[in-house]
Amino acid sequence: MILVTDLLDELISSLELNVQVKNVVDNGDGSFTLTVDRTWYLTDNLYFLLGSDLYKVKSFTLDSELVVTQSDHENTPIAGTYQLENPTFYHGKVKPTNDELTKIKDWYRKPPLIWLFEIFARTEPSEPDSIIDSEGELRLLFLLYCDFANWETSDHYEKVIKPMNTVVDEFLRVLRDYPLVGLLGSVTYINHANFGQYSITNPADTERNMFNITLSGIEIQPNLPLTKTC
Known about the structure:
Elements: H1 4-13, E1 18-26, E2 31-36, E3 47-50, E4 53-61, E5 65-70, E6 80-83, E7 88-92, H2 94-102, E8 113-117, E9 132-134, E10 140-145, H3 153-177, E11 187-195, E12 197-199, E13 207-209, E14 215-222, E15 226-227
Parallel strand pairs: 7-8
Antiparallel strand pairs: 1-2, 1-6, 2-5, 3-4, 4-5, 8-10, 9-15, 10-14, 11-14, 12-13
């Protein structure tokens, strides 16, 4: 049986989240306005590379404009096509995944994460001549660092959920074209502002977080059929 985790890891690594910088304007205040074709997951206060130079997003207009500042260099951004870092893939149950995520510092300097929640079931077809190796529903979460304390719900949508939706769409496009993936039917989308935040029953009705870092994003639930390799 093909391992779903291996396939997803390979697929996510193959994504090409390219940004075409069409025009650069020096704003005279230490920031630059970039006219771009795509912004993907880039959002306020996130650091990212243009080539080998690190920049910080001051503000953005989805798939249109980035206002950026230099970080630890004085190089002016130039027009051209650049590839963003791909999301980092994680898989597992909540506690081991949280343990792994907790070790990472400076989340605002990291690309988003894609988390495959385990446990998930896979079914092999009963027909021996079936081209399907296995199939079953997955829970995949596309998550980005956010600010629980200072953001309103609308901020989560504008700064995380809408940007991450562009990454989800590209992921599904590549997934549908992947050689080992069968016919992918409808996909359930669930938006998660303040992902993993929940209340427990106690006198103070305290809100707890599933993870030790604050995340928002989108969950998709595709029924993923994988075909046999020969």
